[in-house]
C-alpha cells in the first residue's frame, strides 16, 4: 500500500472499510490509499471482528445494510465497553432516504454518516474531520498535560480525552461525544445553538431535519446520568439550544 502521502514521522491512519459490496470496497481502498491512508477492507461484521484485534484502526467506515449481522448491530457492539474498541472513529453509510437508520446510527455513537450513493471525496473530507478530532484536539486543549476540568462532580482530562465519574470511574465516550462535551464545558453557562455547536465541532452542514446535535446531547445526558426530562447539567433552552449549567473548575 502506498502511504507516501502520510505525515512525515507519523504512521498513516489505518481505516477499516466494512461493506458487502465488492465494488465499493475496491473503489474505496484504492481511493483512500492514493490519499495516504492504510486500508483494510472486509465484507461483513464477522470479518471485521476478526480484523479488529490486529489492525490498530483509527476509523471504521461501516455499511448499515449487510447480510448477517447488520451494521447497526455491529455499531452497537463496537460502542459497548465490552468490545474494547469504543474509542475508534465511526462513519456509517446508509441508504438514500433512510433517515431512521441515520438517527439510530447517531444514537449508537456514530461520529458521522453519509447516504449512498456518495462522492468518495466527500467521504474523505468527513473522515479527515473525524481523524482531526482524535489527533489534534488533545494538543489544543493540553497547554498543561495534567490539566483537568471539573464540573458537577465529573472530571474531564483533555490530555487523555477521558471522562471520570464522581465515583472515580472512567466512563467510555466516543470521539464525537467527547468533543461535544468539551465544547459545552469550555463555554459553561453560555447558551450554544445547534448551528454554533456544529461549527465548533467542524461537522457537516445541518439540513432542516438534521438531529445530530439533539441525538448527541441525549447520549451525553445518559452518560452523565443526567435525566433528560429533568436535566440538571445539560439544559435545553427553548428556541435556543443547550447550556452546561455548572461551574467549571480548572485544575
Give the structural class.
alpha/beta
Dominant shape: globular
Mean pLDDT: 82
Uncertain stretches of 5 or more adjacent residues: 1-8, 136-146, 204-209
Largest sheet descriptor = 5 strands, parallel
For the terminal residues, how far apart are their CA atoms? 44 Å
Helix coverage percent: 25-40%
Task: Work out the number of β strands.
Answer: 11
Order of helices and strands: EHEHEHEHEHHEEEHHHEEE
Q: Which oligomeric state applies?
A: single chain
Sheet with the most strands: spatial strand order: 2-1-3-4-5
Q: What's the number of helices?
A: 9
Note down, in words, how this protein is organized:
The protein has 251 residues and is α/β, with parallel strands linked by helices. Helix content is 37%, strand content 19%. The strands form 3 sheets. Strands 2-1-3-4-5 form a 5-stranded parallel beta sheet, with helices on both faces. It has a 4-stranded antiparallel beta sheet with strand order 8-7-6-11, covered by helices on one side. Helix 3 links the parallel strand 3 and strand 4 (89-95). It contains 9 helices and 11 strands. It is globular.
Keywords:
single chain; 251 residues; alpha/beta; 5-stranded parallel β-sheet; 4-stranded antiparallel β-sheet; 9 helices; 11 strands; globular; disordered N terminus
